[in-house]
Amino acid sequence: MTDAVTDPRFVGWHVEDDAHRAMPHRLYTLVFPMDSARSRVLLGMKKRGFGSGKLNGFGGKVEPAETVEQGAIRELAEESGLVAAAAARCGLLLFYFEDSPVAMEVHVFQAREYSGVPVETDEMRPEWFGVDSMPFDRMWADDHIWWPLMMRGDLFVGRFWFKADQVTITRSELDRVDSLDFAQ
Ligand SMILES: CNc1ncnc2c1ncn2[C@@H]1O[C@H](COP(=O)(O)OP(=O)(O)OP(=O)(O)O)[C@@H](O)[C@H]1O
Superkingdom of this entry's organism (predicted)? Predict the structure, then answer.
């Protein structure tokens, strides 16, 4: 596994305080395939592993030999069957769980053009939802907080502190940013 502390792709240090910057970070992607013509977004019901039972975008850990965007496109294909040539950066999320010494650095993307049709995989069961009727009660507790910014087209950076129950948020920060260019 990539050494999370020295991973040169880690960009959280641009927005973190000294204490959190010193934590090991693991990089993840989170991709939302958009169907703008019908104001829909594809979510997947996670069938196993971290976050199982929740609806979420598609994504996972970034592999050592790929860029974050390549990882986003790869996970989208693996988990949903959709093939995208590019993914647009929307935000950066940092998650701290009280029982974990490793911070999660999640790079959020939208896929606006893609080919293929959604297929159920071992990991995810895909389903379309209207962007104005999101099933936030079946998603991660942070999602409803930053979702409106993403829908407005604002770029954002969020930090969320979770209890070990993976439900309770004890502290949060969310900022609109002019650029995510540091997150290359
Ligand atoms: C805490 N609040 C959260 N809010 C919204 N999304 C969250 C999240 N916490 C994790 N996520 C996303 O959940 C996926 C986990 O990925 P995860 O299944 O662990 O990775 P990967 O597919 O590589 O796993 P395998 O080890 O191969 O099974 C990944 O998209 C990551 O961005």
Answer: Eukaryota
Rounded Cα distance, 65 and 122, in Å: 24
Atom 29, ligand 1: which residue's CA is nearest?
A: 60
Distance 140 CA to ligand 1 centre (A): 10
Q: Cα 22 from chain centroid?
A: 22
Site to probe by mutation for ligand 1, drawn from 25, 47, 50 as the one with most ligand atoms within 8 Å of Cβ, is 50
Q: Give, using CA atoms, the residue closest to atom 24 of ligand 1.
A: 60
> Position 90: which residue type?
C
Using the mean position of ligand 1's atoms as its centre, give its distance from the Cα of residue 28 in Å: 7
All structural domains of the chain: 12-177 (3.90.79.10)
**Cβ atoms of residues 101 and 23 within 8 Å:** yes
89-114 pLDDT, tens digit each: 999 999 999 999 999 999 999 999 99
